[in-house]
Amino acid sequence: TEKVSWKKLLAYKQTWALIACKFFPDPIWYFYLTWLPDFFNSNESLDQKLDLKNIGIPFLLIYLISDAGSIFFGWLSSKFISKGWEIGKARKTTMLICALSVTPIVFASTTNSIYVAVALIALATAAHQGWSTHVYTMGSDLFPKSNVSSVIGIGGTFGAISGILLASTAGLIRVKFGYVPLFMMASVNYLLALGIVQLLIPTWERIKTE
């Protein structure tokens, strides 16, 4: 199959659906990587604070569970397909489960329990990795093999841009309003992205390049 230029790829709804799946969730992952140490150390509502001496095990658990989420949600989508589901239905259903699994993270910013906060964040990171797995699969589902790397690159570019935007404003938001608005954003961005996907590509169809 002839490779399609980036300019032509941007004319397809499928491309913009994948962009949405990167633009809204990716900055949330960057937020976790950058701000979670400060959240656990400075959040006054938590009954315990984590510093360099005791932060290791909670973070190890969070990221091990996130790895497990990548595997589990990938398996779940394949399980749906093996039961006879259409590929699009299997992908979107699994992405919806991922998006819904993230929503409770808003309570991490208000809970008093360090254990609850760690559990909610671990669930959200697992769901994010499951979501990311499906974004890459989305590329191979909807685009010819010769264009998968290009469209993933486009999506990654938009994800990086949104990550920069959040990184440049997260500190100000945290100082003025605390962590609640940031965790609220984390809780809804995946559903927002999936809503855009459903609006743009209600049917899971590969692009036609001819």
Strand percentage: under 5%
Please tell me the CATH architecture by its name.
Answer: Up-down Bundle
The dominant shape is globular
Question: Are there runs of 5+ residues with pLDDT below 50, and where?
Answer: none
Total beta strand runs: 0
Question: Regarding CATH, which class?
Answer: Mainly Alpha
Residue share in helix: over 70%
Topology:
Elements lengths: L5 H4 L3 H11 L2 H17 L13 H27 L4 H16 L11 H29 L5 H30 L2 H21 L10
Give an account of the 3D structure.
This protein has 210 residues and is an all-alpha fold. It has one domain: Growth Hormone, Chain: A (Up-down Bundle), CATH 1.20.1250.20. 74% of the residues lie in helices and 0% in strands. The chain is built from 8 helices and no strands. Helix 3 runs parallel beside helix 7, helix 4 crosses helix 6 and helix 5 runs antiparallel to helix 8.
